[in-house]
Amino acid sequence: MLEHGGRLRAAARHYGIALADWIDLSTGINPFAYPVPPLPLQAWQRLPEDDDGLVDAAATYYGTRELIPVAGSQAAIQALPTLIPGERVTVLDPTYAEHPQAWRARRLRRCAAHTVDAAIDDTDVLVLANPNNPTGERFALPRLLDWHARLATRGGWLIVDEAFIDVDPAESLAPFAGRPHLVVLRSLGKFFGLAGARVGFVLADAALRQRLTEHLGPWTVSGPARYAARAALADTHWQQATRQALTAAGKRLAALLRQHLPAPPQGTALFQWVVHPQAAIWHQALARRAILVRRFDTPPALRFGLPADEAQWRRLDLALHALEDLPT
To answer: Is 75 in contact with 216 (CB distance < 8 Å)?
Structure first.
């Protein structure tokens, strides 16, 4: 099992600090999660039903009906290699670690974002995240569509993980869902802050959706999760207000990190990523102050999520200021 952010209980045990005292900035999940309304009793009592309105709400939100719900995009990440052919697989480096893990049985090539174009004509499956996690790098729609066309002409596939794109939906490939050999993954875990619900969507052509549905089996998303997701996807007022709030918070976080760290941050509205030669030392020093961030080793870097309130912003500012004398 790969390591991910959010292992707050393990950090609390390791550092001997009470769980309630921690600030968890390790996940990139919206700390201002969608306020799910009270669940009706039948959401717990009845088996999930496909015609409960979830697909309709998702179709309106994503602008396409070429989709199916899954138990978080992770379920699709693990299933797609069993359904998509192709020996030569290219993934970004660095990127969300579950992507190369899922394709490890193929001839796997890792490449930096600026070298993807050169790798297209020697690739059967290109897997990337847009924006990329953890670096925040973005790929413009015309570029992605060109890569898809070049791949599809040879029977190749483009798989794009859009877990962090909801703040900027105009950059999404969702309107092009249904094109053969194109797969788009979406999630309610980041922007909506509903990671625990385990709800995602696979946007793809009908043939692949059918194979994926048969592979995953019935009732992949629980009734309570479907109810919460349907409400969140339909709440346009909350979505608009949250996009504005997250955009402002992301800029604030980037400005704060520029004050204290030697390298400029880059990222999205939900996280900022900073290359730092002493990332391990800074990660541990922050943890001793009960602030959990995500550490990366190649290259050495730290990823910071958003503080949840003014008290957390102040604690982060003070902690970073105290660490400025550490090696850089």
So the answer is: yes
What share of residues in the chain are helix, strand, coil (percent, to 5)? Answer: 45, 15, 40
Q: How sure is the predictor about 132, in pLDDT bands with cuts at 50, 70 and 90?
A: very high
For residue 126 the two structure tokens come to 């290109």
Domains of the chain: 8-33+237-322 (3.90.1150.10), 41-234 (3.40.640.10)
Q: What is the DSSP secondary structure assignment for residue 166, as one 8-state letter?
A: T
Helix (H, G, I), strand (E, B) or coil at 131: coil
Q: Is the pLDDT of residue 57 over 70?
A: yes
Which of 16, 18, 23, 20 is CA-nearest to residue 6? 23
Determine which of 3-17, 126-140, 226-240, 290-304 has the lowest per-residue pLDDT on average: 3-17
Q: How confident is the model over 137-141, as a mean pLDDT?
A: 97
d(CA 30, CA 166): 11
